[in-house]
Amino acid sequence: MRQTRTGADVTLHCIASRSVDVTPNGGGKNDERFDSDVSLINWPQNDYLLRNLFGEGPEAAETHLQRARQLSLCLLYWLQTEAPRPDGGMGFAGLRLRGDLMGSSDGLAKMP
Questions:
Q1: Which residues have a Cβ under 8 Å from the Cβ of 28 and sit 6 or more positions away?
Q2: What is the pTM of this model?
Q3: Contact, 67 vs 74, CB < 8 A?
Q4: For site-directed labelling of 103, which of 8, 38, 53, 112 has its Cα 20 to 30 A away?
Q5: Buried b vs exposed e over 42-68: b needs ≥16 C-beta within 10 Å?
Q6: What are the tens digits of pLDDT across the range 67-81?
Q7: 3-state secondary structure string, the chain?
Q8: Using one digit for the tens of pLDDT, what is the confidence trace for 54-108?
C-alpha cells in the first residue's frame, strides 16, 4: 500500500476501539515466547515530523518523545487491525512488541 501526504501541516489521529496490551509478549502469567521472524519497523509512517525532539528544553523534549511513541503505537495498531493482507484480509494480529529484544519496558526503541 502506498500513502501520499501533502501539505505542511500534518495532524495524526489514532483511535482504538479496544485497549492494546503493549507489554512485552503480553506480560504476566501469559508471558510466552513464539518462534517467528523479528522485524524492526522504521518506515516514513512512523517518523515524527511535527516538531524537533531536541533543542527546545527537557520538558518539550519529553512531550514530543511521548507523542513520537504514540505515533509508533498507532502504526502498530493499524498493522495489527487494518493493514491489507495479500489474502484480502485485514491486519496482522500476530504482530507484537518485543521488549526483551529492544531492551525497553514497552518494546519500542529506547531512543529515536
A1: none
A2: 0.66
A3: no
A4: 53
A5: eeebbebeeeebeeeeeeeeeebeeeb
A6: 999 999 999 999 999
A7: CCCCCCCCCCCCCCCCCCCCCCCHHHCHHHCCCCCCCCCCCCCHHHCCCCCCCCCCCHHHHHHHHHHHHHHHHHHHHHHHHCCECCCCCECCCCCCCCHHHHCCCCCCCCCC
A8: 788 899 988 988 999 999 999 999 999 999 999 999 999 989 898 888 888 888 8
Could you identify the residue written with the cell 476501539? 17
Integer CA distances (angstroms), 47 to 29, 35, 93, 106, in order: 34, 29, 22, 18
**Assigned C-alpha cell, 99:** 521488549
CA distance 48 to 67: 8
